[in-house]
């Protein structure tokens, strides 16, 4: 297992006896996917990122906003551009941005979501894995606040401690997720993410069922990445009947 993965319930790749587990793996994005964008965490994130640009890079607000958007579009993660072009310490960035987010003010236990994930897990037809571009401290913090601890076998995250950074939508990120989760058959990979770019990358990579998570107010993409989309995770019961 690569250093990009940590276990959340003491198991190793879903096995306790060394046998190969041939079940599908359902990869869940975390931010703006397991919780709604209406939680406004992304607004706090944007504020902290731009503050970091201004304070630590000594650039004006308009330039900070431009670089933030440019790096997000180009790399899928603002920190990727900072590390590449400005020699920023990714772990320092994480401490000033992700780990500084007031998550306790924005998130709370989601019993309905826990019930859904528990049902999916207890059916035993697939294994559950987290797949995020955040660092592990942020991902695990969100899962704890949502009351979802112990339901996922592990997490593949963007490892800020190692360069170059590997994050979605890079092909290497999807390869790492499969390696971490211990699955080799792309057709058995399920994936849900709020990012159109990440969904398109998963489809291009050959994952079996890719679901684009939209907010209730979001219009359907003009050029959808996949035929599957949902506005509420509860729709997964119908969308993935074969797993329930």
Automatic annotation (TrEMBL):
GO biological process, one term: pyrimidine nucleobase metabolic process
GO molecular function, one term: nucleotidase activity
Any one Pfam family match given in the protein's UniProt record, by short name: Hydrolase
InterPro entries in the cross-refs: HAD-like_sf (IPR036412), HAD-SF_hydro_IA (IPR006439), HAD_sf (IPR023214), Pyr-5-nucltdase (IPR010237), SSM1_domain (IPR052791)
PANTHER family: PHOSPHATE METABOLISM PROTEIN 8-RELATED
Protein name, UniProt field: Similar to Uncharacterized protein C24B11.05 acc. no. Q09893
Native source species: Pyronema omphalodes (strain CBS 100304) (Pyronema confluens)
Record lineage: Eukaryota, Fungi, Dikarya, Ascomycota, Pezizomycotina
């Amino acid at each position: 297992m690569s250093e990009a993965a940590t276990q959340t319930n003491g198991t190793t790749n879903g096995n306790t006896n060394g046998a190969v587990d041939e079940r599908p793996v359902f990869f869940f994005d975390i931010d703006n996917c397991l919780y709604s964008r209406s939680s406004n965490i992304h607004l706090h994130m944007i504020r902290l990122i731009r503050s970091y640009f201004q304070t630590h890079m000594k650039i004006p607000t308009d330039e900070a906003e431009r670089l933030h958007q440019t790096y997000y579009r180009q790399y899928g993660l603002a920190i990727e551009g900072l590390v590449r072009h400005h020699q920023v310490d990714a772990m320092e960035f994480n401490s000033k941005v992700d780990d500084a987010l007031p998550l306790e003010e924005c998130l709370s236990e989601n019993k309905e979501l826990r019930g859904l994930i528990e049902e999916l897990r207890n059916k035993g037809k697939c294994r559950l894995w987290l797949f995020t571009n955040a660092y592990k401290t942020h991902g695990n913090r969100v899962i704890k606040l949502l009351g979802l601890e112990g339901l996922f076998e592990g997490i593949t995250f963007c490892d800020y401690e190692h360069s170059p950074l590997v994050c979605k939508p890079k092909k290497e990120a999807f390869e790492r997720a499969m390696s971490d989760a211990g699955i080799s058959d792309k057709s058995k990979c399920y994936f849900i993410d709020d990012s159109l770019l990440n969904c398109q990358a998963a489809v291009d990579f050959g994952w079996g069922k890719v679901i684009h998570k939209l907010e209730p107010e979001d219009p359907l993409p003009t050029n959808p990445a996949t035929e599957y989309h949902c506005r509420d995770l509860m729709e997964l019961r119908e969308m993935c009947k074969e797993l329930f």
